[in-house]
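hey can u check if this looks right to u? its 368 residues, i copy pasted from the old doc so theres a chance i mangled smth
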Amino acid sequence: MSMTSEATGEHRNAVQLKGLCKRYGEVAALDSVSLTIREGEYFSLLGPSGCGKTTLLRIIAGLEVADDGELFLCGELSGLTPAHCRPVNTVFQNYALFPHMTVRQNVAFGLRMKKVGKTQIVERVSKVAEMVRIEDLLDRMPERLSGGQKQRVALARAVVNEPKVLLLDEPLAALDLSLRKQLQDELRNLQRRVGISFIHVTHDQTEAFALSDRLALMNRGRIEQVGSPTELYHQPKSRFAASFLGACNIFEGRFLAHLEGCALVETSLGELRVQTHDGGLPRGSAVVCLGVRPESVTLRPGPGIENIFRGHVREVVFSGSETRVTLTSGSLVLQSVLPSPQAHLLKLLIGGAIEFSILPSAVRVLEG
């Protein structure tokens, strides 16, 4: 299909949003959203229900019009361009297949509307059917398809039109867990084969992490943070980002002093050394909000480790490959996650005293 910007050595923008706003009465669905999505990128819009991600997708698709701001598609100002004239196609959550048409007719529908020649339609339908593995379903009616098969047909119908951008609105939400995981792999592989930009709306963090090159975390009509899955998980900037993107121990501390490469913060645990990732704590931050992922809380650390504290084991929960341990220390309740074989060797006792450590580099200073 199309050639990615990586192949040409260029990094062009597929979608660029500048200060987009959308209101429904008194509710601001989008509040000055600016965002750039690169050509050939798998990009996810992630956030809780009502955060504005679907509204944003519908504005890109041309199904809604922004109240303010600018939208560029492939470098062209497109805010008022009719939906059918935009270089995008959308895969909806309910698949929206025509029940009176066969799979072949469903896939070919957009091409017929564009008056593509019959020979070319046959060739393109055959090619995309092979790509999404529905060759043996082309003569079936939608009512005879499973949920996963309907999803593949919906993808084929969108991709066969060779859009520059494919929009996916919670495409896996209606599927069971095992099928969702299977189709996540298929979606990622499909995006790599066709080389176009995918913009995927989801509220599922695991799904967004598994699929995305980059993602935007949204909250209350605004973009909270943009980056790779690794960046957002390990370097959350706000309390919301830290708590929404997986489990996180969040507590407050009082700034005491700057040390070499670290800051010293007084917490309920005691004095905590925090590596200052951005050159120092924000000015005037006498009280700071701190976040530590459970896997960064090390139980029974060896000698020479900084930030060693004492607490008690409140709960131990085995969940297969991992074991979650709840600790109490002073007034704080903390979570630690470690591989189950390691937890077994530690012989943890409910109510037992235990030492634990937190690496200075694992502590994030959070906004809000």
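Residues 5-235 form a domain with the Rossmann fold fold (CATH 3.40.50.300).
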